[in-house]
Write a structure and sequence with these properties.
The structure holds two protein chains of two kinds.
Chain A: E1 10-14, H1 18-30, E2 36-40, H2 46-60, E3 64-67, H3 73-82, E4 89-92, H4 96-103, H5 110-122
Parallel strand pairs in A: 1-2, 1-3, 3-4
Chain B: E1 3-9, H1 15-21, E2 27-33, H2 35-38, H3 41-49, E3 56-60, H4 62-73, E4 78-83, H5 86-96, E5 100-105, E6 113-116, E7 119-121, H6 123-134, E8 138-141, E9 150-151, H7 152-157
Parallel strand pairs in B: 1-4, 1-5, 2-3, 2-4, 5-8
Antiparallel strand pairs in B: 6-7, 8-9
Helix pairs in contact in B: 4-5, 5-6
Classes of the chains: A alpha/beta, B alpha/beta.
């Protein structure tokens, strides 16, 4: 694992300031926020979200997209944008532990790191209950 | 009549529709009226994957929807009628008796002027919306149930940038 972050490896897309918030948290915790490109759907039509994601993916060679909500605009648009782009991974329902795992997975390809991070993220939640 | 929301939203199926309206109104089905989606099995599958399994999703072209809406109004479940643009909804107002229209999301385009955070309208679209009201439909803008509905007259008098 290298010490210095390399070029971006994934897009994080979501509603409002969701992506900026998550990426800033990754940067704060790991110093590797530069591996992620935040994208906000705020004020954009479905067609514009799709076009923007396609340009981001094409221009930067990115084949991994994390989105906030399975039924959300970004997920729908990302699926359309990534269609036909060969090996790619779209993860809907991203969380912070997932992204932290991803940015430390630079010994893997971006798509394999995303698959690994998905498994980490889905098991990273816990329910802690107090007693009355 | 069990179509509880007749919505214009250029994002079609997304979180505000499925979660924002779907949960509080106990929505059992969505009728998506869009010529392009009605002609694409792949897009239909995409939207099905974004919809909870307990929520049925039906696809129609604009022409087919005109005759199909009567059937959905007899469905005992609550449903949402969804179009991606004002022209498709106008047709349903004129030919299928839609009488309440919700503007849920029409986003930026160079020929459009911003009216609300989530509503941008071209002069042509404004005229189409006015025509719907002349035909007896009540047109309001409201992105989520918790927001206040904005009537068409107020909407067209609003300049978001000046607020």
């Amino acid at each position: 694992m290298s010490d210095a972050p390399a070029a971006p490896r994934a897009i994080v897309a979501g509603h409002g300031g969701f992506a900026d918030g998550l990426v800033s948290a990754v940067q704060l915790i790991t110093g590797r926020g530069d591996l992620l490109v935040p994208f906000s759907a705020k004020g954009l039509s479905g067609v514009d979200i799709e076009g923007s994601l396609r340009r981001l993916a094409s221009d930067r060679g990115l084949r991994v997209v994390f989105t906030d909500l399975q039924a959300g605009s970004c997920t729908m648009a990302a699926r359309k944008a990534l269609r036909g782009m060969g090996d790619h991974v779209l993860v809907a329902g991203v969380n912070l532990p997932m992204l932290i795992d991803f940015v430390f997975g630079d010994q893997l390809s971006a798509t394999d790191a995303a698959r690994h991070a998905f498994e980490r993220g889905r098991t990273a939640m816990s329910l802690i209950e107090g007693k009355p | 009549m069990t179509l509880v929301l007749n919505r214009i939203d250029d994002r079609l199926i997304h979180g505000q529709v499925v979660v924002g309206w779907g949960q509080p109104f106990d929505i059992g089905f969505i009728v998506l009226v869009n010529d392009e989606v009605a002609d694409s099995e792949w897009e239909q599958e995409l939207y099905r994957m974004g919809t909870p399994p307990e929520m049925d999703l039906f696809f129609h072209s604009v022409d087919a929807a005109v005759s199909a809406l009567a059937r959905y109004r007899e469905d005992p479940r609550n449903g949402i009628l969804l179009t991606g643009d004002v022209t498709a909804m106008r047709r349903l107002v004129t030919d299928a008796g839609v009488r309440e229209v919700n503007i849920g999301g029409i986003h930026h385009r160079p020929d459009r002027r911003q009216r609300l955070r989530y509503v941008f309208l071209s002069p042509v679209e404004e005229e189409v919306l006015k025509a719907m009201e002349r035909e007896g439909a009540i047109v309001t803008a409201r992105d989520v149930p918790a927001a206040n509905a904005v009537d068409l007259k107020s909407l067209l008098e609003t300049e978001e940038a000046a607020r």
